Amino acid sequence: MAGIYIHIPFCKQACHYCNFHFSASTKLLEPMVKAICKEIELQKDFFEDPTLVIDTIYFGGGTPSLLPTQNTAFILDTIKKHFALSPKIEITLEANPDDITRERLISLKSMGINRLSMGVQSFVDEDLIWMNRAHRSDAAIQAIELAKEIGICNISIDLIYGIPTLSDEHWIQNINTAIALGVQHLSCYALTVEPKTPLSALIIKGEKEDIDTAKQAAHFNILTSHTKQAGYEQYEFSNFALPGYRSKHNTSYWQQKKYVGIGPSAHSFTGNTRQWNIANNALYINSIEKGIVPFESETLSEATQYNEYIMTSLRTIEGCSYDYLQEKFGATIIDRTKKIAEQYIRKGQLIEQGLYLRATEEGKFFLDGIAADFFEV
To answer: pTM score, two decimals?
Structure first.
């Protein structure tokens, strides 16, 4: 099984915290769609295995819901021409609430989109304004209810906590609103200040308040307790799902499965190599028109592969698999891993359960530091 990621590099406006590749101008939208479809054709043999089946397609960005639905359908039809798809495929489209209409949802569902990932971020207007989001809370609620009415039964929403304007009471309100709306999946992230973003510049100028890590820790505690009571499984540090609704696409990343990224700035992974397309819309289109995929790549050393597996696996509910380490790296690395783990097991931050090493509830707060101690140089 493998995945396909499609990067749609357009947004209505720049959210202050965002550092993803996008353009606020849609002038190149039509040639971009043609280039993306051309790259799909150029990458048809990327996996070098004609028996490989695609079990997840993910439209990310940017804002994929900005695309006219005929463009989305054109991209999907092109994928179907060049790749074998699983009959149980998960096809996710990221959407902003202000793009959602009844007609658009009906069209998306008819072409096979069976999962929506909505960028809600908050149900409090003050937070949305602070982040420079294009929608308001009532639009998010209406979009979720409309998607359910149309029959899209797998809805994920993004929420951000630790925002300076977000009180504990409003964070509880955000979680409870999502639960009451019956969304099946939550992706919840602490606000981060990325370099070269508008938020970073505004904080440096003193025009916006910096983040408070103590507030973020408190919000995370609130999040885990409320979602657990509501029956959501925290299957990865930032991801919560009702039974049967884990994200196949994100899970494939954490399980080191292969995927190909299509579009400017999109990343691909084969297990031993990683490549990334140029993050420039005009240059990407020009190169694809010449039949050349404009990317850089790296061959991952065994140490890098081990480090990445430790970092991602400890964030998941399953944890780090000793069987996987044995198969991928040999018995010596297991001895090394167990030796390093001893100190954290004594502290109650890691636990060995059968052939897995997992983070405890307490350990989840220290995962970055714990994982770093395992890293090989």
So the answer is: 0.95
